[in-house]
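Model: You mentioned two targets. I'll fold them one after the other.
Researcher: Yes, keep them separate.
Model: Target one:
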Amino acid sequence: MPTRTHTKLKAVFVAIMSLFFVLSYSHEDGCHTHQMVWETESSDFKEKFEHAYKLLIVNPKEAYEMLSLMMQDLSKEQSQTLMIAYWLRGAASFNLNNIPAGYADARRAFEMLTPESKYTFLGGNVVNQYGLFAAVCGDDDHGLKFLKEAVDVFNVICTEGSVMQFTNYNEIAKIYIKQKKYDLAKEAYDEAYAEASLLEDRIWLSSVINNIGLLQHELKNYDEAMRSFKKAKSVLEVKGPEHLLFLVNIEENIAAINIDIGDPEMAYGLLANVAEVRESNGQPTGAIQAKIKMVLAADKMNDKGKMLPLMKEIDLMYAKHKERLERYISEGLDSYFKFKLSYYLTTNDPANYTKQADTYITFINDKNKRQKDLVQVAYDSYVQLVKSKYERQLELEKQLLVTEEESHAKGNKLLISLAAILGLGVVMLLLLVNIRRAQRKEVEQENKITKLVLENTRLEKERVDEMLESKQRDLINVIAFGSMRTKFQEGLLKKIQKAFEENEDPKTTIRSLSLDIKAQINVEERLSKLKSDLANLNALFEKQLLSKFPHLSRTEREICAFIRLNLSIKEIAQVRGASTDSVKMARLRIRKKLGLDSKEGLDQFVQAI
């Protein structure tokens, strides 16, 4: 499902940065010329800003260091220049994955906006940047507020389609999807489509059509989603590597639908191509995301030969890129770890199950910590914004107090106003503290529940394994008792023949035979109880078998259960009191109903269920 991740927002920043780079050599963006962005109090900084701007994509670390040195030479009076520096350094921090530092710079740039500077190309980008940072830290309400504010700015200053408007509407739609407000998300995507149409750029148009398809997939409207993805492919003209990467993104979405609607083989082929393209273009996170979906497709095909090697590849890539992968595709990894837990549980592999459970617990703890850290960043940033707002208000009030002729009369009003402002600030701070405390408790509770579920699952698995081992030993006794039954019958016949031949006393003979028969009845009762216990033990397996293959009869399911316990044809015949020929015929019927060809072994197939 569509989710907000660092990767998506980073892609947005890179797209925006790339656009500005192009603007430095073009005429218009439908709004203002690029040169207007660099209007500063000192012309000496224009060239430096241009150089730092170009470094944002290719070397963000150098751009960050360069901007930090420049800012040491700036004074507070050079507010426009400082605002540009904070804005650019915030983008550099984002590309370096330093969210707290980037958010702080974005907030400082936002605080410097005046009513006059807000409605400029730079002002709109400053508001937009602050909204994106709020969203990436999980503060959806403020993210929506500032992204919509940026939309209002560009609606005023733009005369044509704008990439910034296109980007803002896309991000607004993603927040609405996260909040399950699908109608509002559709409206936002319609606005993004209108902007892309005005831009007359196939990549942007294909991108928004692809996003509409993702929304339809989220709503399980598979036919409409598939039409959107195919339309996105037809709109996109493949001309180079960048177009190819856009194309494989669409193919990955088509593959996801094929998994859902029951065509895993087609999905597997598409995803293999997606993973190969991304790996060759140095995108390990995208490659592993495609391979995780390939595992799900292979599982739907019941093809262990494809699934198990893929799981090994993913585990190796996870070990190599652990921190980066967990940051960018945490939802995909979460699904993958849950799938592996289920797989090791159904294949009776306690060692791998325990190992994977420990890995999953560590992953969940790290994920929750990252979420808590981002929430803290959002909380600190907004508290600081509120504090700065009231500090500026306080400074303004002080200036008015000095300049007014009737300062004493207005002094009392100022104190009342300041008290109200400070009181409101305290209330807001307390409210934010309570929200943060509640979020922390919720995360801790989720951690406890996750640990408890995993521990209960592990204990239940150990109990079932012990019961299975015990019943397998009893089953050996069942087979042995079956052989004893035959020998007992042969012994009775010999005793009766001997009594006739030697003319023994009939009473003595009958008494001896009666004792033997009673002993055999006791054995038969034990056999019956043991078979009942085995039937109860295999109830879960038979239930799973019935759900997958409802056309199997009860006798056929019972024979499958014995096959799962590694019994031979002869042993199954002894346990069921049937002939080996009847067991062989039953096995042939089972193979036919399961659709196995001559090369596939029935025993291996049943063991793998």
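Model: Target two:
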Amino acid sequence: MSRARIISWIAPIWLASCTLPLKDQNEIGLPTNSCPVDGDLGGTCGPEGECLRGLCRPTQAANLELVFLVYRSQLSGRGLLQPIPIFAIPPLEQLRTLARQGGNLDRVLPSLGSLSLSLLGPDPAKSASTSARGCFFAGQAPNRTLPFHATLRPSSSLRGLPLETFAENATDPNKISPAFDLRATFSIPPATYDLYVVPAQEDACPIPPLLRTDLELPDQLSILSIELPPTSRLGGTIQANPSLDLSSWTLQLVEGHSGLRVSTVAGLLPSGEGRWTIGTPYEGGISPLEYYRPTGPGGVPTGTLFLLLSPPQELQAPRFAWELSSIDLFGTGQIDLDLGDFALPSVSIELRTERAQPLGGQSAWVWFESLLTPGSLFQAPEGAITAFALGPLPTDLQGNLALSLPPGRYKVGAAASSNERLDLASGSFEFLPDLQDPSASLAGFSLQFLPSPSLEIPILSATSNQAFAKVPFELTSTHRSSTLRSLFGLSGVTPRGAAGQTSPDGVLRAGPDSGVHDLVIRIPPSSGFPWLVKPSVNIPLPFPGALRVSLPVEVQGRILDPVLADPIRRPFAGAWLRAFALVDGRYIPIAATPLEPNGAYRLLLPSQL
């Protein structure tokens, strides 16, 4: 069986954490968490700690929602490396109580599940109702399996965790009759997945992709056969300014949450006087856009569909989108859209990027994005979502840039092209043509670069003023582009983070871009302290002096393998356990530890974020 990994979703922090030193690092003078007298409150362990079994522990802890992941080097002897999610983890407050009482948190890993997936062609007797062209598989036997490509990715409740997306092509497992026994077989951790199936395309009869959401796939064999249902159809017309040529533009339906295409791709045919008919010509006539509505458990329709009108790749023009329910109110499959007077007029602008100190031009890369708000583009059609993106574009050595854009309101960002650490520059401008002289170039727009914020933060122990020297840290931007913005190519300029080690005197020195970042300082477990984690740090707002590493919530136990129960067989050699906290809709890594070969572990979790 072939197995492709499409997306690993593993952030750079995890790449770094794989090299977490395991030896005792106190040789470089790290503070240590230790105390001499059990039950000592407010003494050695400070006002918020107590001594228990030789370790300072917190008297209170934040109530966090946690997810543990296990990364195994071997899964039931199959030699696969992939993360296994473990759920039903108690909140951190319960873990603190559990740790104080000396209990263990054991978990039995689920066995790998197996999914056998096939796609069935329609009964030829129903082919006329299956496709507008009435040509799907004419003359073929009923229940013929079709070639396809399928993708499984974690459902929305798990998205953002470093879990894999699995992809397979349908093949004949028995090598007997590819025409009648095509299927894709997945070996996956049991979880909730979204399934996206793209049938192999035939030029004469294209088939829309299918999207099934929130599939519960257990730790056993699941056999799923999907029979192609009749397609839904969307036709009608688009009225446009006669000067706007839509002959090479395309229409498709996308699911709003995932951004996945769920329809065929249709073109536009001229019908005279600026009117265009939706459809693709074929020998028997014109085929409208065809689609399958995404469904959730029980076949219930789910998601929001957007009709996306896109220019050809070589044309610098906006994209348009309409929510399907707003333009096909009664589900008739016939729509009549109006682009109004939108005629892609261009406005010429001149922009300059500059340095604050020393004064002068600064070469840079510049991005342009029309704001994703109603009316952000001049003469955009009412009721449509419209946006335009361009860049990155290089300035000259003096920071000058001249270009033409569709008129409207834009967010403009720039990153300096020199090696000097300069903060990202950004601004919002309105580029509208001069009504007295539409051919005139608009000048006087500028972006100013400032030095990157400079952070100097002592990292201190929770129980003393000792500093943590030479410990690794990461500042990672929280910027994430929404699906809708991504559909329009509006990715934005992501603030650059920073990574490194604290200095020999225990000070974090870094120059990240301004913006919101997650700060993670990976304190070695040999110190007896947890990682220091500060989500959503707004830089350049100053920190209130030093940052103190919190006292740890100690969690220990065993991860048990349901297949290889004999520890002599070392089922967890080289495996890791990693913990994430859900903060502001994002999963933040808060701890990691290697598993012993028999599955034993000890995690030190931060009691405060």
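Researcher: Noted. Anything on target two?
Model: Residues 1-27, 74-81 have pLDDT under 50 and may be disordered.
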